[in-house]
Amino acid sequence: MAKLELLDLSGNVTIQALSSFSGTAGLKTLVLNGCVGLEHVGPLAPSLESFSFDVGYSISTNDSAKVSKISLAGCVDLKSFLLRGALQILEELNLSGTAIKKLDLNNQVVEVPRLKKVFLMGCNQLRVISWWKGSWKLEVLCIDTHGRRGAPNSVSSPFPPFQDKTHDGYVVAGDARFIQSLFDSNGGLKTKSLYLDLHVPHSISRSPSSSSNSVLAKPLCYSDDIVFRLESLSAYGNQIPWSPPSDLHVEIGEGIKLTDVPSSMRAPLEFALEWCRVERCLGLQAVFAASGSNECPYYFPKLEKFWASDLLAAHCIWSKGVIHDDSYSFGALQIIHVHNCPRIKFVLPFSSQITLPSLETLHITHCGDLRQVFPWDSSRLPEEYQKEVAVKEFPALKHIHLHDLPNLQEICAAKMYAPMLETVKLRGCWSLRRLPAVGRGQRPIADCEKECWERLRWEGLDTDHHPSLYQPHHSSYYKKRLLRGTVLR
């Protein structure tokens, strides 16, 4: 049957398997409408282009569909895929390596109340998924729109090569709009936990012809069901270990261009973010920004670690006016890393109630325009409050590393008190004039250039802000002032 292109078995209620048709190399269209006796579908010929399986809606259990698994993995030319009717015992659907653009699992089209596993690895053309309405969730969801179609990993093994058992869902996509396909009409995810990796591969992101595919056409609404993740990072040759997260997370990487984050809600919006990593998003203006009409403040009570790098157009991380003025807004934040964001002016604006009670490490490097790390939020604070002598306590802060920040004038607009501070490392922060006040216990080490140390200003021992409370360490080389008119010969 090498020349067979169309096979229509509609109405055959006795057939139970299609194994005899798996070797039909030229098969392009397969119609199984009404084949309720089938127990398994697939594997099928790679040449298949169209597949239709409409079992209808039977009242009698004897006439209901028996199929529990459908696998069209490896059908690299499959573009038309239709499931319709009541598939009451279908548990697994594998379309890995196909060319489908849309997967419709809506209740109005198909009923799959027992579906547990969905595999869409290597589906480069996939753009939209329409989910059912209901509270039941998938046990396994694997989607990769970057994988090479027909690759062994996409067919023989539907699981991603580095998927761990922590997450039920695994999604890799190059278009941020695909996030909208991960939620049903009620805004809920179809898995209890999710790994979402947004990036464009080097071969795509560097191609001029593909730039339009990575640009977000409309503003992206973040959801509290998506959490960003970072496993490890390399900073100046030192590998910094990060224990794996146990909940939902997302990575946003190279090639993705996001716009502002709008919201039509008025009540404070809680983000369930625990890990956040954003890097090489060349068009990103702010990671968490507000549209002109946004009146909904955000707060991040579960956020523990934040990492941003190579955001060449970003002017801040959190915009002013978007953070809920509450002491719990960043109650769990432990680590802040910002690297190579040359236009960034500030990181996180403070208001009267916002504090960072869990912050342990502040690590910022190569941000030439950075003026303040924690400025006052002028949109939420009266000018009189900003002029008062306010003190912000950082009870858990241990390490401060600031490198190549020539315009940094102060870490915090308010006076800082960090009783647990252990190390301060400064390089190239020539405009910095103030370090945090510290306790009277063990003196923290201040590793910086001698000239930078001499320019710092102090208030006195009575406020625990005095150079004698630090252990200054100066490098063997430091910036020297050259005479005006010096000529190098």
Automatic annotation (TrEMBL):
Gene3D superfamilies the record matches: Ribonuclease Inhibitor
One protein family per Pfam: LRR_RPS2
Domain Disease resistance protein At4g27190-like leucine-rich repeats: 321-435
Domain of life: Eukaryota
PANTHER family recorded: DISEASE RESISTANCE PROTEIN RPS2-LIKE, NB-ARC DOMAIN-CONTAINING PROTEIN-RELATED
Protein name: Disease resistance protein At4g27190-like leucine-rich repeats domain-containing protein
Organism (species): Eleusine coracana subsp. coracana
UniProt lineage: Eukaryota, Viridiplantae, Streptophyta, Embryophyta, Tracheophyta
